[in-house]
User: Fold this.
Amino acid sequence: MSKNYNIAVVPGDGIGNEIVPEGYRVLEAVAKKHNFGLTSKTFDWGAGYYLKNGKFLPDEGLETLKNFDAVYFGSVGLPAVDDTLPAKDYTFKVRTTFNQYVNYRPVRTYPGVQRPLRTEKHIDFIIIRENVEGEFVQMGGQYLPDEANGMGIDTSVFTRKGIERVAHFAFKLARKRRNKVTHITKSNTLINSLSYWDRIIGEVAEQYPDVVHDQMYIDNCTASFVLKPEVFDVVLTTNLFGDILSDLGGAIMGSLGLGGSGNINPEKEFPSMFEPIHGSAPDIAGQNIANPYGQIWSAAIMLEHLGEVEAANNIMEAIDKSTSEGVLTIDLGGNAKTSDVADAVIKNL
Ligand code: ATP
Assistant:
């Protein structure tokens, strides 16, 4: 009997409402071709929901999501809503509650897409960003903020358990690829938290003697992403550095709209969540011009996580065929509409 997957669809705000339905259309087409079932329910959560209801999702929202195999997500945030809320009240909540401690963000060359870099070399690496600890735990406070001696403090938290588990994920992933992990810190200046990170990554690395282990500081890494991106295979880093590096990863591919990602709970105790690396881009929303490739790629990452590897590969091949045929959105220098891209990918499956 063929399998069936139950997907929670959360388009969110802005272009999420355009690219998520197009991505889901691709998912339905690939499911039909590869003979598995998909059922879904769409939730209107996000900043728009907050403006009407005072919260990003209903109180029972997270409990509801637990009944699904995965969450297919767009992005949350609107200019009219305080920009500290989307992360605090939706994204971090889902990532933390569902122990999605791996943020999986691949970067690669898309055929036919012009890149801002001079190198012609093939780029293919995966940023593994620790997703629930570090600089984004939102512990701290502001003291006397209106006074001349006011201050703001955020505390970074790194635990042995948190570092070890994401490191094991990265080293195992490298074994399925080109056997190299580069871990990124700034332990020469963050001498407590990030040197602890270095030490524990070093201990984990010893358990994978077949994997080449390299270390770089974040400043050198950003330069290397631009000057020699072909040297990377698996890039392992903290929450904040991974956030910044993945936008740079999107940029070196040719557009932020090209990057897909997964917030993964590797043990599958809870649903994982799949989303493009960019935000809700309200500046271009409502025009059917947003680039959906990253959203479609996120669907492939979701299928891979669910075990439908052939279907995931099929989506990636269809994406490559579409970009090489010149199906490019405005941000890529073309004139394809959002829906044209999904049509092309479906045709090429
Ligand atoms: P967040 O912090 O939520 O990631 P952001 O403030 O970084 O969001 P984005 O929404 O990612 O901002 O948008 C940054 C820029 O990239 C905007 O000019 C936006 O139009 C553009 N952009 C983002 N996603 C896409 C896309 N899919 N297609 C085309 N342009 C995009």
